[in-house]
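Recap from last week: sequence in, structure out.
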Amino acid sequence: MKQFLDEKVASFNQPTFIENDPICIPHLFSKKQDIEIMGFFAAILAWGQRKTIINKCKELIERFDGEPANFIIKHNEVDLKNLLGFKHRTFNDTDLLYFVSFLRFHYRRFTSLEDAFLIDNQQHIPFSMERSLNEFKAYFFSLPDYPIRTRKHISSPLQKSSCKRLNMFMRWMVRQDNKGVDFGIWDRIKPRDLICPCDVHVERVARKFGLITSDKVNWKTAVELTENLKRFDPDDPVKYDFALFGIGVIGEL
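Predicted structure tokens:
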């Protein structure tokens, strides 16, 4: 199975994968903060048809005047009118305005979004993705008067979510293999600490291969899958996301 999955990783983990995947959005930028911001939005908005997701993210870039980081850090109240009317499924302009407010708050304190996932990182305690994602959600909603409706757009292990979108975003930012797909622009969180994104394609293929035994799809399911993938590569288990997702998408199962 390892040999088969390694071959599939090599097949899918290449620039041709980018074109029709939401990861194409952060690839439109070279500045680190732009990559982080649009990668974050692309991951958060990643449900539904991939073509629609990509189009909505491009609309968002236009509303940010083509410079997401500059807009978010330097915008004034008048500029925010550009964001009114944005909508993707249940994500609307109320949610977008709070996301922008949080990101401005964060980038005025730190130079990278990686710090948002290391807010309570203690050197003497090993890094835990579960703790990191729980603390990220608490940090994200630490601003006063956040919209209650917006909480549904940031998942956490505490609510038993598999955190598919956040885990996908973390993969994009953390994995470093110079294949031209994942960015590897974060270096304090390590590839070995990532949790495999567990979407419908990955889940279906992983079950077929006996890598998932749980009946439900929740945080424990994602952890179980990742632990099994560590048997193939303990330092970079999430690279097999390419294989499982790719096999599922092209119907090769």
